[in-house]
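Following the same procedure, backbone shapes were mapped to integers, as reproduced here:
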Amino acid sequence: MATTRNPAAPAVLSPRALNRATLERQLLLRRSAMSAKDAVAHLVGLQAQNTKPPYYQLCARLDGFDPAELAALMESREAVRIVTMRSTIHMHTAADALTLRPLVQAARDRELKTFRKGLVGVDLVRLRAVSREFVEERPRTPGEIREELLGRWPDADPQALGVAARCLLPLVQVTPRGVWGRSGRVALTTVEHWLGAPSEPVPSPDATVLRYLGAFGPASVKDMQMWAGLTRLREVFERLRPKLVTFRDENGAELFDLPDAPRPDEDTPAPPRFLPEFDNVLLGHADRTRVIPPRFHGRNGNGNQAYGTVLVDGFLAAVWRLGDGASSPGPGAASLTVQPLGRLGRAERDAVTEEAVRMLSVMRTEAGGTDGHDIRFAAFVDFGE
């Protein structure tokens, strides 16, 4: 009688193997020549809770990056800042903003339910219509939105009213907010009004799962759910299983990936990279040990405050910031302080210094000039203290 052989067990990927695969997808193993717009799309958006991190994210990833290129995308409305994944502001291409926001709307609906005590007696259908008309007349500040809604529902909680408008409507922060070298207060209008195009119907998540794996894989179902702020994605991965390959991590979790996606050897060199606070490579997985060593868990932030991160050999090894309150290193010079979380050898420090000088040279508008750079190493002390 013929016997049926069991299929081979999925290969086990070490944290270093996952690290190198993720860095390659994230354009951090070697810098890419792609345009800023193509990079924003490839990465499925840039974390943009603060205005400057998107520029530093692309500085770390693109060869020949100029902050003016990304600023131009903002000003031409080819890129926008909008609440999407994990209820946080991301910078997306215009096309992605019109599709990804409807995809994560269910998560915004769940968020709104947590504020229901402050919305007793509020007609949410009417609130949505009133808010849309108000912000599409002209962009409005969050305070103006709350004041307008409080005039309609004076017994409601002002914060809950503002959250309701943000959850019910796809609001973008309009320029000049977020434009490199400029400043502006937060002013909001709908993405449809800002782009002059309707939002897409709620899309199937299948395409976004494949894009996520292309930028963050190999990854588990839980990883993608953490990145997107969505639930119940298991059935989507099961539907896509015939198109995917699977692995296991060292803890036995099943990892999915695109068959032809790059998975470099775990010994592939990974040069130092300076990342801003809240970079998605640090937030894109439920299990973050592929980038953050367990011994450094929680060391790159203090509560809701996150620090700039330095990757050495692909992993979190230090935090950084511009300036340190010391005397100025000279006209047009920029001061940057690196705080290693563990010991860095001489060659590692030299490589980190070289990368810091490069970053400051590219980001000269923010750093203050190009006449000189003062790179300092200091013992780790929590910046929040």
User: Anything to note?
Assistant: Residues 23 and 29 are 5 Å apart (CA to CA). The radius of gyration is 22 Å. The longest strand covers residues 315-322. The longest helix spans residues 346-362.
